[in-house]
Amino acid sequence: MRHIFKPGKDESKPVLLLLHGTGGNEQDLIPLADIIDPEAPVLSVRGNVLEHGMPRFFRRLAEGVFDEEDLVFRTRELDDFLDEAAEKYGFQRGNIVAVGYSNGANIAGSLLFHFGKALKGAILHHPMVPRRGIDLADLHGLNIFIGAGTNDPICPPMESEDLKALLEGVGAEVHLHWEENGHQLTYSEVERAAEWYKATFRN
Questions:
Q1: What does the DSSP 8-state code read for residue 172?
Q2: If you count Cβ atoms within 10 Å of the first and of the last residue's Cβ in the chain, which end, N or C, has fewer?
Q3: Which residues are catalytic?
Q4: Considering only CA atoms, which of 97, 98, 109 is closest in space to residue 160?
Q5: Whole-model pTM?
Q6: Digits of tens for pLDDT over the chain (203 positions)?
């Protein structure tokens, strides 16, 4: 997968896995990493699917309707890539915190749904429930931040509440932060995520 890896000033810090939204690329969320933890290693990945020329991490059938077969395939593809990247760049596979926005947050959520503790934690900006009606792995000890908008037309508030309940149902510690905005990612939301990260992953 096309990506950028930046070694951290402190290699003991979690590797920040950056996952962009629809139409983005591996450059988009680099500024977020600088806000969340400027000393952490960064692995920023570009999605392998194109929708009308716009990169995504998996196909969808319509707005808010995921192609579940492709979602499962692409989730496994990303999980395998993380194994390879950990070996190539010499970081611990179990020391990855995902930072995803929209489509990127959805593929990060899918990693947790399908592979359990594939991540050490996650910051999910405006995610949806990746899949419904499946059994989830035990996520006890996993910390997750969800950023949501009360006026989000793409990810309605109930979607965020459902995702929180599903993750907490298998033991995850979930912090749901609300902004009185739509689907856009605001600086104040990123700041709240950074505060949560610093409180959660203090070395």
A1: -
A2: C
A3: 102, 152, 183
A4: 109
A5: 0.95
A6: 999 999 999 989 999 999 999 999 999 999 999 999 999 999 999 999 998 899 999 998 887 788 899 999 999 999 999 999 999 999 999 999 999 999 999 999 999 999 988 999 999 999 999 999 899 989 999 999 999 999 999 999 999 999 999 999 999 999 999 999 999 999 999 999 999 999 999 75
